[in-house]
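TEACHING EXERCISE
Course module: macromolecular assemblies
Task: Read the component lines below, then compare them to the predicted structure of the full complex.
Student: A.B.
Group: 4
Components provided:
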Amino acid sequence: MSARALAPWGRTWTAHLRQRAFRTAPADRDPVVLRHSRIYILPTRRGFMLIVTLGIMLIASLNYSLSLGLGVTFVVSGLVAAALLHTFRNLAGIKVRPLAAGDTFAGERIAFSVELMGGAAARSEIMLHARDTRVVSDVRAGAALTLTLLAPTDRRGRIPLGRLTLSSDFPLGLWRGWAYVHFPLEGIAYPKPEPSPPLLPQGTGGADAFAAGRGGDADLAGIREYQIGDPPQRVAWKAVARGAGWFSKAFDGTASGGPVILDYAALPRELSHEAKLSRLTAWVLVAERTARPFELRLPGIALPLGQGREHRRLALSTLALLPADA
Amino acid sequence: MSGTATRLLNRWRAAAPRADALTATQARWLGALLAAAMLPQAIHLPIGIAVLGLALIALRLAVTWRPRVRAFAFVIQLPSWALAVFALAVALAIRQWYGYFLGREPSVAFLFVLCGIKFMEARVRRDGTLIVCLATFLLITPFLATQSMFAAIAAMPAILILGGALDVLERSSVSQRRDWRAPLTQTLTLLAQGLPIALLLFVMFPRLAGPLWGLPADRSARTGLSDTMTPGMFTELTLSDEVAFRVDFDGLPPPPAQRYWRGPVLSRFDGRVWSAALPQLGSVQASAGGRSIGYTVTLEASGQPWLFALDFPASLPRVDSESGISTPPATFLGITRDQQLIARAPITQALRYSMVSNLRSTYPAASASDARANLRLPAGNARSIEFARDLRSRTPDDSQFINAVLRFYREEPFVYTLAAPLLEREPIDQFLFETRRGFCEHYASSFVVLLRAAGIPARVVTGYQGGEINPNGGYMIVRQSDAHAWAEALIGGVWRRFDPTAAVAPSRVERGLAGALPAGEAVPLLARFDGGWIKKLDLAWDALNHQWQRHVVDFNHERQRALWHEWKLDLFSPWQVVGALVFVAGAWGGIVLLWLIIRRRRQERALVLWDDVCRRLSRAGLPRQPHEGPVAFVERAAARWPQFGIALKAIGEAYAMLRYGNLAPDSRERAALVTTLKHAIDALPSPARLRHANP
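Instructor-supplied answer key:
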């Protein structure tokens, strides 16, 4: 057989092994039950130091012929060995299910929830670790526990949960048992909205669509109570300064707030691709908040005029998943 | 405190708090662990070091317990360099105390104090790890001093607390749980599960035939015989109750008059001190004649390179002849021409060996050169020499001369006493003709001098004479107070034993020290006849200790080999044994895991029972809806079959309680509820009958 014929086989073989040992690909199906083939155990730092100490005690006892010294050394060794089994038992049989992945804006934390079921045995000090985030909890016997990992994001797009590590060094902290689980669970991070975007483009197209800052106040319909998320420029600062409380300026959506077109191509050329997406994201949020229907035009994709939560989600997702080099 | 110091302390405090800082609970557990590990060691240390180490622990614990007491608070805020300086000072003090530092005892003493110092500066959990390791090592150091049962028992609390401390250290702050009992209970479980492994290792782990590195001589003096004899030495020995060795006889023990345990043979004399000549290896001389007797000696560590045997050895010492192999102990070197058993190195651990002796008072001399070496006399003691030559000229032969000398001891007013006057110059002359009060070394020494002066080769033999049978266990105890010195003379090519002490005090040989000494002299309590209940208690205790010593402490290289031989393990190759051990260890793991799983199954029973109820009701025509909780489901079932309503409701409530109630996994309530559930289920008819049952 030629080497060429062997090579792919060899590659799949190592890939298979790597997958089995380290679960590098998100190939686990819901639910995963931790069995011996998945669980690894090694001494912790403390366990390693204690084992070294026991080794020194063993050599000293042998040298000085201390039968009792050997006895004590072996009794403590028995304790360490039994702790190993308990560490294994603490992890073995745990059922892991991916529940949900959240959505968020880039730069904020994204929530992944995972359900742990310990079966009939209580599990102690189980640590869940993924994406540099960890959470520790006990799992009560017979209970299903939902744990939420709040992972930081740094970019827009799909955010996979990645490889999940379940670990525990219960009961004595001498052994660390761990298992890898890799679910194809993905959340989504929308582009980070521009902190203080210009006002929405006016009207339904035309050259003056970006007459930002002009005539905005003319459409003022009144003021309403401040809600979290209202942009600072809409806050009725005069009222705040008077001490009357927090209010936002409300605009009459029907008067001047007709449908808006949020067009990528119409944005100033000096803005970078990501900055344009950030501004569009901010506008989507403003449009949604002020209840104005909007149309989103992006390179290669366009959303028809629409309104409402679903439309907003669709728009944000489209912005999040737009290729970086458009 | 000055302003600068306060500022410095404040800066230090600001730096101290960390995410993995030791909690008060963790500090308390570590303190308890250290205290439990250090106490058994403390009694073997100089009082100052013991108090210092324990005081450091107590101080830190006091601060942890009462954080409000500011007076001591500075202690845990001392910077590390200050403690390092302190540790250095302690090291110097220990060096000063012992006179050396690189040895076993000073090292242990330093380690002891180091534990206290490390505990003082323990702030994070990583410090806890080091403390746990130090304390664990400290568990075995008391055994360097004693391996008694007490020492073994004293180590147990620390082992238990070790598990507890590890558990508490491991706990992250999210589940700082429970009272102090739970970690200990858990440790007990783990220890119980680990015990088979511990036993297996203890029996199977290969012991060393000799030490890996040289054992530095223990510089603390041990009581016991030495290879010299100075006036007054035996007097000191007789004040000690300590056990020299124990003997198990194969048959009846020899009569008291024949219990001469041969030790160092001293043939050099400088006028005051007797010392041993360089040993020359020879062979067993007394192989026939006399009553032959087999016995097993358990020799306590003596720090001296010789073994003891009854006069006269008829074999070389053997290790565990009953098991099939019988080889001399690894430390055994050989028998000298003087019939003394000598070892390669000082006996630093208890040694058990079997011997055969022929009970006789003579043995043939190996060579004529013995005679020359045993005739030399130093200058001095002229009067004794004159006396001997004069007496010899008046007796027809050597034997009659010796009898005349013994008669001299018997008939002149010699007194056998521990309170011998100090002999300044010409000690033999002074003793024989002036003081006439002495102990065995005075009689043996003067006797040999008289014989040598008369041209008869003679020498002093030291060892033990006597021994007491312990009625609990039927073995003999020979104590340091049985130490004795006697003489041997070479007459007609045969070495013959003479005991001049017996001429003065015949009861010394027959009844021991207490029987021979005048009333009112200080005899150790346990060497007396009238020790009363204290002595009885001591004998019972000694019997227990003897067993402990035989089966636990003396389980060394030889005993292990013997046991393996008995179990036919030496028929297998080493890798087969290792394979078997791995198999046994694997089996152990399987059994323990099975145990854990069975316990889990017991908890699962509620789920299984409920599943069964649902299946039966489903077959009876009433399947549970996915959204239905247990209580709702049994309500619906009770509406369908009101005649079984009570049982059904009981099932639902018990199951809901088991499943969703906040019950501890192993609680009694849980067990009771499972029983209720089972009884209620038993009260239900079969699904087929249920299906056709009418309301």
